[in-house]
């Protein structure tokens, strides 16, 4: 039902945004076919009132909002909004034009004589949940709350039934709801989709809500909360508003020319503002994809020679026996991956086969895979046995790192020198940093010596790699983190349109206005402020049924 309604809305929107139905000063057909001398004929008094009209019109064409679908176009939907299984409480959510009827048919407030009593909106009521049939059989003794539109998550009437979370209880309540002819089960993400369609959320908030539900680390939670709370939306809205202001200036030149009441340098001012906006968007894009990496997980590859302590390090990170550890070289032959929380950041740790020359065909394949894993990782950690690679010469300590390992060292490589307890003469981590030119730590995975400092230092190194400080997160002042490829594609498109505008001259104001219009629309697609049917399915398909 909602899919056909969305398509009906899109057809209606398309019909109302055709060139012939646009405001006169935004009619694309008229602009593209304007005679060259028409600017001279259009010179007339340009008041502040006229200019404000241009701003409003430019915003209308570059930034149409998605309207609310009427209740007559929907069904009332229901779903279990909490995870299935045994727990203290299960919440069944009902939303739609007939949600109040659900309350009337199935809720009896405690303290009465069993007859129906109207709810007090937004107040949790102790009640009995009953069969909607004439028998009125009690299904559970729980709580219920009625949210009256538009003060609800979906902006519709909403009823929430808080039940004991037994499978039989939840099943009986859902079965009772299915018997009501005006109700149907919700599709995945449909509650959130209705909130979006009603204007309660934009696409960045919807995506942030999904990421907040899926967040497993502190870093993911912080980023998702910024998006779900509307901070990212406000930042992209500011970018779009800046482009629209440039568009309004250019549109004023198109309609009024450069008359005596038009300030000098209007087009130059628009170009200057467009240049500043282009620089800002490029800075957002030049983020080393840290938002996407934090959202999906930082790929860390642990590599080194056999028996250096790589698998022991993985077990230390996981705080369990995830990998087999033996004194036999070549025990690890394939890549073992774990998703872990290291210092509040999501890290996908890959334990790789020890790098050495061998004739074992299985081990050779494992070494080849290890090389690929290290080369494709966001960050790598080289684990070495300190007694085996450190030697003291007359001119000071030196490191003997195998050639096969040197080929895999990159600017994102860090070092952990293990087995420090076996070293006769101690050496500091600072000295090893000087020798490697990279961040380095000494520790003993057997005794635990130095592991606390290593974990603290490596957590900071991860944050430095992503240019993201968990402890100094000021959401309002930070640039928006681009957490999805969709955002990046739209911002890159906006850059191309702004660059095209900057290549135009004052004699090509019509073409320049078109480029600005496309730039505003590209930024608008990030938050869903324009026609976004092509991306809605991909945004909502991964939501759970009750969300």
TrEMBL record:
Record-stated family: Belongs to the TRAFAC class TrmE-Era-EngA-EngB-Septin-like GTPase superfamily. TrmE GTPase family.
Domain of life: Eukaryota
UniProt subcellular location: Mitochondrion
Principal subcellular localization: mitochondrion
One term of GO molecular function: GTPase activity
Gene Ontology CC terms, in alphabetical order: mitochondrion
Record-linked Pfam families: MMR_HSR1, MnmE_helical, TrmE_N
Record domain GTP-binding protein TrmE N-terminal: where: 76-199
An annotated GO BP: tRNA wobble uridine modification
Domain MnmE helical: 203-544
NCBIfam families membership: mnmE_trmE_thdF, PRK05291.1-3, small_GTP
Protein's UniProt name: tRNA modification GTPase TrmE
CDD domains linked to this entry: trmE, TrmE_N
Domain G: start-end pairs: 300-389
């Amino acid at each position: 039902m909602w899919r056909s309604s969305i398509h009906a809305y899109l057809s209606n929107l398309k019909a109302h945004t055709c060139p012939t139905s646009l405001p006169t000063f935004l009619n694309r057909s008229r602009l593209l076919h304007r005679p060259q001398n028409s600017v001279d004929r259009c010179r007339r008094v340009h008041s502040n009132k006229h200019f404000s009209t241009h701003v409003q019109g430019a915003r209308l064409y570059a930034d149409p909002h998605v309207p609310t679908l009427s209740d007559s176009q929907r069904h009332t939907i229901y779903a279990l909004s909490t995870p299935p299984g045994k727990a203290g409480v299960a919440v069944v959510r009902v939303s739609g034009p007939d949600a109040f009827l659900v309350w009337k048919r199935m809720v009896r407030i405690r303290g009465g004589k069993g007859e129906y009593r109207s709810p007090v909106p937004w107040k949790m009521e102790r009640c009995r949940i009953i069969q909607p049939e004439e028998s009125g059989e009690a299904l559970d003794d729980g709580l219920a709350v009625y949210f009256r539109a538009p003060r609800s998550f979906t902006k519709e009437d909403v009823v929430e039934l808080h039940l004991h979370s037994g499978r039989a209880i939840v099943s009986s309540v859902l079965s009772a709801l299915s018997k009501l002819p005006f109700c149907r089960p919700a599709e995945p993400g449909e509650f959130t989709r209705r909130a979006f369609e009603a204007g309660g959320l934009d696409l960045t908030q919807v995506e942030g809500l999904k990421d907040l539900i899926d967040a497993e680390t502190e870093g993911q939670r912080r980023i998702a909360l910024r998006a779900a709370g509307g901070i990212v939306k406000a930042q992209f809205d500011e970018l779009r508003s800046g482009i629209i202001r440039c568009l309004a200036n250019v549109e004023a030149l198109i309609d009024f020319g450069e008359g005596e009441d038009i300030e000098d340098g209007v087009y130059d001012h628009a170009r200057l503002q467009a240049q500043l906006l282009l620089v800002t968007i490029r800075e957002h894009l030049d983020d080393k994809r840290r938002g996407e990496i934090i959202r999906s997980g930082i790929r860390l590859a642990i590599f080194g020679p056999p028996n250096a302590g790589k698998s022991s390090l993985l077990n230390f990170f996981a705080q369990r026996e995830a990998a087999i550890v033996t004194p036999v070289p070549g025990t690890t032959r394939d890549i073992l991956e774990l998703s872990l929380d290291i210092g509040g950041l999501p890290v996908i740790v890959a334990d790789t086969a020890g790098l050495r020359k061998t004739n074992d065909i299985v081990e050779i394949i494992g070494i080849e895979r290890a090389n690929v894993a290290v080369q494709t990782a966001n960050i790598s950690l080289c684990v070495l046995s300190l007694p085996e690679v450190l030697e003291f010469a007359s001119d000071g300590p030196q490191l003997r790192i195998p050639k096969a390992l040197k080929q895999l060292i990159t600017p994102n490589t860090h070092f952990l020198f293990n087995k420090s307890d076996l070293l006769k003469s101690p050496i500091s981590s600072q000295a090893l940093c000087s020798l490697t030119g990279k961040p380095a730590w000494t520790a003993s995975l057997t005794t635990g010596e130095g592991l606390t400092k290593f974990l603290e230092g490596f957590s900071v190194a991860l944050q430095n790699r992503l240019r993201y400080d968990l402890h100094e997160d000021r959401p309002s002042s930070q640039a928006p983190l681009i957490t999805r490829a969709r955002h990046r594609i739209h911002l890159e498109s906006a850059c191309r349109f702004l660059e095209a505008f900057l290549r135009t001259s004052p004699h090509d104001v019509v073409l320049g206005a078109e480029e600005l219009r496309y730039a505003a629309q590209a930024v608008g697609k990030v938050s869903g402020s324009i026609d976004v049917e092509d991306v809605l399915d991909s945004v909502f398909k991964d939501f759970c049924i009750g969300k």
